[in-house]
Amino acid sequence: MSNEEMAKAIQKGKKEYIVPLWAQCEKFIEYQADMYLRQFPDNYKEQKCDMVNESYFALLNAVESFDPERG
To answer: Which residue among 17, 23, 31, 56 has its CA within the 20 to 30 Å range from the CA of 10?
Structure first.
């Protein structure tokens, strides 16, 4: 199932798709966090953990506002 299909299902109340959607996006999010945090080596592990956790909530917000008609 694609990310878009899961987002639509979650919007329709199928909350069981939140975990699989996160699983599909998590590696990309961790990669992006790594790329950004290379600039700030102090407390790298803690900052990465915080950034990934915040990204989870950002993903949930993105799913709520996702509109497949807008592309």
So the answer is: 31
CA distance 31 to 61: 20
**Residue 28 is encoded by which pair of tokens?**
């990309």
- The Cα–Cα gap between 1 and 66 comes to 16
Is 3 exposed, middle or buried, given 0-12, 13-18 or 19+ CB atoms closer than 10 A?
A: middle
**Which pTM was predicted?**
0.82
CA R_g for the chain: 14
Q: In whole angstroms, what is the distance from residue 68 CA to residue 70 CA?
A: 5
Task: Say if CB 6 and CB 25 are below 8 A apart.
Answer: no
